[in-house]
Amino acid sequence: MKRQAAILCLVAAGCGGHASSAAQPTPPAGEAWLTPQQVKNANLIVQPAADQDVGGAVVTSGKVTFDDLRVSHVFSPVTGRVVRIEAQPGQRVKKGAPLAVIESPDVGTAFSDVAKAHADLEAAERDYKRQKELFDAHAASQKDYETSLDNYQKAKAELSRAQKKAQLLSKGGGADSVTQEYTLRATIDGEVVARNNVTPGMEVVGQYSQGNAVELFTIGELDHVWVQADVFEMDLARIKLGARATVRVVTYPNRIFEGKVDYVSGQLDPNTRTAKVRCTIANPDRLLKPEMYATVSISVAERKALAIPRSAMLRLGDQTVVFVEMGTAPNGLIRFERRPVAVDEDEGGDYLPVTHGLERGEKIVISGAILLAGMI
Question: How many whole angstroms from its chain centre is CA 168?
Fold first, then answer.
């Protein structure tokens, strides 16, 4: 009521204080009639609807992820029991730094397999040489000679296998044949992002065992991250590699993170009809965290379309409306009609394309429309 009273005061001021006669025509529903002086007092600005440069950006949703070349998911290659934790979440580590120590019978087995393979190879080699001498002297059958040769070659292969396995354990960590302990080490420089419920005394399953190995540590660098944006099929042709991308997240609403598009997926998700567009974002302060949801704006080439400024739009319930100047009323007042319109709000920029409800050349109120809405 107060708002309507204020508007009536404005109307009265524009008329010089003279009240309208009851015989005067009244505006129909959805219209407001004003004198030129009232339009001036209300600071209404009217502009013809015309083609504008729109679509300078495709705005969509996305999610922050690790750069997969800057993250390492650490599993244990051996089955055993955790005896010590050497790294904590949030700790910076260098490649090769210890993360945890695991007491494992797999370590002892690996080294004993090497020793056994050495002994078997020596025995097979002696037998092969003996059979060869006998065969050359025509004192042994060819069958016995070939069998000894085959056993000798198998022994060499088994030694090579056992050595490779032992080397793998030694290279990936610090396998100690005496204590049967395996030191799980960092494979890259980075931050210990997660320690996945690893506690002293916990039994872990090795990657080379029959069970399902679980990830024990996640190490990553967050100074650069990826944002995976979901772009609709209709916008894909406008997305170019190297295009500028800006990202906002709920956690830091006033912060804009900048990067560029470095990959556009070659396939669509059959359910959402979107394609993944990957943006590389600089994150020197490590504010962006994996799994954060983000609003992504990707720069694209502009196009011409019938468009209206954002300032011209009003939200009334579930409708988007503008006010259109419709000429003069029978009493000489200027008519303004409230008009529902449909616009493409997914486009970035100050102008939004009109898809329904407005024609080129129609005069719309681009400033002060809220005042007219209060008069109807």
Answer: 35
Q: Are strands 363-367 and 45-48 parallel, antiparallel or unpaired?
A: antiparallel
Residue 277, φ and ψ in degrees, nearest 5: -120, 120
* Chain centroid to CA 200: 34
Amino acid at 83: V
Q: What is the DSSP letter of 20?
A: P
Nearest 5°: phi and psi at 310? -60, -30
Is the dihedral angle over the CA atoms 192, 197, 199, 204 positive or is it negative?
negative
- pLDDT of 180-197, one tens digit each? 788 889 989 999 999 987
Full set of structural domains in the chain with CATH: 2-55+304-375 (2.40.420.20), 58-69+221-301 (2.40.30.170), 71-220 (2.40.50.100)
The two structure tokens encoding residue 94:
């260098």
Residues 218-256: pLDDT tens digits? 999 999 999 999 999 988 988 999 999 999 999 999 999
